[in-house]
Design goal:
Shape: globular
Strand content: 5-15%
Number of domains: 1
Radius of gyration: 20 Å
CATH superfamily: Aldolase class I
Oligomer: single chain
Helix content: 25-40%
Strand order of the largest sheet: 7-8-9-6-5-4-3-2-1-10-11-12
């Protein structure tokens, strides 16, 4: 384990001054009945939250668990973000707020025309701000050596969603409703592994998180988990396990709780600090915890994350923890904030960006966080998905 690796694994984990995990929902303003943010409080949020920009909703996979960051499945056909607006938005916020972290995601961000054309304008922009923590979240298929070489030295984090190292299981997870021929999927899988292997040779494993959404009966066996841990240890990558969040009530059977998962991880050689919660109490919110795999030398710290959307604790703390999600409009060149993952509320940013109205832009971000302080998604059990995808004819 490296010092840099430990630091990166703890970057998004919240602990108190005594370095202990705590229930975020007990510390938030919403518990005190406060629903409005002072400017100083808003700036504190900019300082600790990540701006997460979906460069495109389009993807070359169709993952069963995919939330598409709160959009419907049909939104995968929408247009990519205007790269000029994305850059202008980032620069406006970096000039007027203490924002420190910006993530680029999707869909699959490497399918944006800026990557496909190899202009890499968004990457060139990031090089002008060495003090900002930039991250890229990809499925690895198009994360070519050329792109890796462009970002490896100044991006703080590279996240790759793998889910399984077994092709049949990977295909089952990433090819919901049989969207793609198996032969095409096999080529994607092989390319993903090839790109990850190249990434592993760059000596930046402490920046790399191999993400896996754990699903009951599919990739949650001790054999699956150990294979993932060993793979990450071989390349000095961080394993990042995400709790499966049902996109529809019919998917609840695939959820694996912390107690069950953590017990399995302990049996294959993972250790947790004594204050790590082995529960999923919906009234509390401890979204991320670390663990260490001892089964193989060279293992970087692991991370387990949970959204908890719809649960009381998560809804009360959401404004104080969840990323600031920015997405592109489907029919016009514009950007909007999507405050709540499970609701389709949208706050348009386009006019403020185009007119360079910094004050208006900041107020829109304030409205977004204050909306979350109302816990609008409390009790919600469906992630804005079309019911037709969950009929017997279109089952997983």
């Amino acid at each position: 384990m490296t010092i840099l690796g430990k630091k990166e694994a703890e970057a998004t984990v919240r602990k108190d001054k005594k370095n202990r995990y705590f229930d975020l929902s007990t510390k938030v303003l919403t518990r005190k009945g406060i629903r409005r943010l002072k400017t100083s409080q808003l700036m504190e949020l900019f300082k600790k939250l990540r701006l997460r920009i979906s460069l495109t909703p389009q993807c070359n996979l169709f993952c069963f668990f995919c939330s598409n960051e709160g959009l419907s499945y049909s939104a995968k056909r929408d247009l990519p973000a205007d790269i000029d607006l994305v850059i202008d938005l980032c620069e406006m916020l970096l000039k007027t707020t203490p924002l420190k972290s910006i993530d680029f995601s999707g869909g699959e961000p490497t399918l944006h025309p800026d990557f496909l054309s190899k202009e890499f304008r968004i990457i060139k922009f990031t090089k002008r701000y060495p003090h900002v923590r930039f991250s890229l979240h990809s499925n690895g298929i198009n994360l070519s050596p050329e792109i890796i070489d462009q970002i490896k030295n100044h991006f703080s984090r590279i996240g790759i969603t793998v889910n399984s190292l077994n092709f049949k299981k990977w295909n089952r997870i990433t090819n919901a409703f049989n969207q793609f021929p198996e032969s095409v999927q096999k080529k994607k899988f092989n390319q993903m592994i090839k790109n990850i292997q190249y990434l592993g040779k760059q000596n930046i494993g402490y920046k790399v998180f191999i993400k896996s959404v754990i699903m009951r009966g599919i990739n949650d066996s001790e054999k699956d988990l150990k294979e993932l841990m060993d793979f990450c240890a071989d390349y000095h990558f961080h394993p990042k396990l995400l709790q499966f969040e049902p996109q529809h009530p019919s998917q609840a059977k695939y959820e694996v709780g912390r107690a069950e998962l953590f017990s399995k991880l302990e049996r294959i050689g993972c250790i947790f600090s004594p204050d790590v919660p082995f529960h999923n109490n919906p009234k509390t919110y401890i979204p991320g915890v670390n663990f260490q795999y001892l089964g193989k030398p060279g293992a970087e710290p692991g991370l387990h994350s949970i959204f908890g959307c719809g649960d009381e604790g998560a809804c009360l703390a959401c404004y104080d923890f969840l990323c600031m999600f920015v997405k592109s409009h489907s029919n016009i060149k514009g950007l909007y904030l999507k405050p709540c993952s499970v609701l389709d509320t949208r706050i348009d940013l386009t006019h403020a960006i185009r007119t360079k109205n910094h004050k208006q832009l900041i107020e829109l971000f304030r409205v977004s966080r204050e909306y979350l302080m109302l816990a609008p998604g409390l009790g919600t059990k469906s992630w804005n998905k079309e019911e037709s995808y969950f009929t017997k004819e279109a089952c997983f």
